[in-house]
Amino acid sequence: MTATSRELFEPYIIARVGGERFGFATRDVEEALDAPTVGWVPVAQRGLLGQMRHRDRTVSAFDGGWMFGLARRARSGDTPGNGAATALMLRDGDRRVALIVDDVEELCTIDMQGVRPVPRGADEDGILRGVVFAPAPLEGLLSLVRVAALIDRATSGDAMSE
Fold it and tell me: What is the tens place of the pLDDT at every residue in 108-124?
């Protein structure tokens, strides 16, 4: 059996968190929203910036810096809720969650044959599918299933909207 071009080349949305770049499969991203308004949530659990409205639903918004263990780059006036970042609306079936990143940089096609294993010790939570070094270095390609599991673990299973 030979691999089809769909299996060899996949479109990815490239987002920046701090000084690193991460790839999200386009099939897992419903939308990228510039300058999202995130509402404060009292007694928010670890990583949760708050909630936001998206297409008539309330969705939990998580900090990409928390997700990847990086400090997001603060911009002038950057506080949760003021819209000084970008929200990636991730989907897993009917569930949605917003991941707040510094910026979405581009849409590109990744040659899956060029994906390398994640170095040992570089991904304690197991959310990365691999590392890509060309055309420009990416810290990693994300596994949405593992991202959802990490968020669910942090929030006792109620993070993604139904």
Answer: 887 778 787 877 877 77
